[in-house]
Amino acid sequence: MSALRFYTNESVPVAIAVGLAQRGVDAWSARDSHNLGLTDEEQLEFAYHERAVVFTHDADFLVLASQWTEQQREHWGVIYVQEQKLGIGECIRRLVEYALFLSAEDMKNRIEFL
């Protein structure tokens, strides 16, 4: 079983990826990967190739991930929370819990709400 990895798209503050990394979680942002401006589909494809869960504030990823599942295309999971619903620290705390208790395989093709 492999550890969860997090990829934050450009809707998420970079501080979340930084905070996760500081806590020993493998995490990086779209900015870190030079992926700013990619479409949601391209972002999900990138995360798939990196075996990473997408953490996002963009509800379009919920639709996209559902479509991929219906088309029998695999992804490594999407975790969504509405922007401004939780602060940066609370997002980090909850994502660390995911990393502690779930493996990458546990999140495969799943959609979770933070």
Shape: globular
Mean pLDDT: 97
Ends apart, CA distance between termini? 23 Å
User: What is the strand arrangement across the widest sheet?
Assistant: 2-1-3-4-5
Tally of individual helices: 5
The overall strand count is 5
Strand content: 15-25%
Low-pLDDT parts are none
Structural class: alpha/beta
Order of helices and strands: EHEHEHEHHE
Measured on Cα atoms, how large is the radius of gyration? 13 Å
Largest sheet properties: 5 strands, parallel
Helix % is 40-55%
In short:
This protein is α/β, with parallel strands linked by helices and 114 residues long.
Commentary on this structure:
With about 110 residues, the protein is an alpha/beta fold. It is built from 5 helices and 5 strands, in the order βαβαβαβααβ. The chain has helices at about 15-20, 40-50, 60-70, 90-100, 105; strands at about 5-10, 25-30, 55, 80, 110-114. A 5-stranded parallel β-sheet has the order 2-1-3-4-5. Strand 3, helix 3 (about 60-70) and strand 4 (about 80) form a beta-alpha-beta unit. Helix 1 packs across helix 4 (about 90-100). The longest helix has 14 residues, at about 90-100. The chain starts with a strand and ends with a strand.
